TrEMBL record:
Organism this protein belongs to: Cnuella takakiae
Top-level division of the source organism's lineage: Bacteria
PANTHER family per UniProt: MEMBRANE COMPONENT OF ABC TRANSPORTER YHHJ-RELATED, MULTIDRUG ABC TRANSPORTER PERMEASE YBHS-RELATED
Official protein name in the record: Protein involved in gliding motility GldF
This protein's UniProt keywords: Cell membrane, Membrane, Transmembrane, Transmembrane helix
Transmembrane region(s): 12-36, 51-72, 93-117, 137-154, 161-179, 218-236
Amino acid sequence: MWSICKKEFSQFFSSLTGYIAIVVFLLVNGLVLFVFRNNILESGFATLDQFFAFAPWVMLFLTAAVTMRSFADEYRGGTFEVLRTRPLTAGQLVGGKFWGSFAVAAIALLPTLVYFFSINSLAATSGIDAGAAAGSYLGLLFLTAVFTAIGICVSSFTNNAVVAFIISIVVMVLFYFGFEALSQLPLFNNGAGYYIEMLGIRYHYTSISRGVLDTRDLVYFISLVLFFLLITRQNLQHR
């Protein structure tokens, strides 16, 4: 499994595309935080709330770009049959692809720690709430894991990387924001809207971002990752 993980990781950085994707992720978040309208320098408050609210939408595109070739290129290039001749189970193959892609996306988050230290140094009085920031970063990692699992799952159903990219984005948006939008319909004003909103990723991401670890949030994220990886494994076994 780890050989597949290392292959996936090194393959992403073997071309300029991988570096461009991460640079764009950091650039867009930096512009929103420090340059665009209502940026943190204009507000005058030492907080990363704006970054953590916007980052999931940029991470959505990043993970889709990272995972779109996971299995699609293997099918198109005919290397999937070669992988299946190796002493690897379908679960190990899926696990290797997942951890390799997740490591790439997680690395993109590391440079954003510069935002935390920069804003802390610029603060005149008290800096950023470290507990809430740590919770938000943990939430972003779980969010990245779910998006990665979704992207790999979608990629396992097609041999076209562009199609995998587009469908991955649609599925990620539905799971991140779709349930919250659905819960706001007048049809669910009787209280059912709250439980429908709980099915969405954004509800649990916001909960972790408060800096409080709730077992229900952790179980939700882990279950969702396992769910999509299980679907991927079943699809590979059918192939």
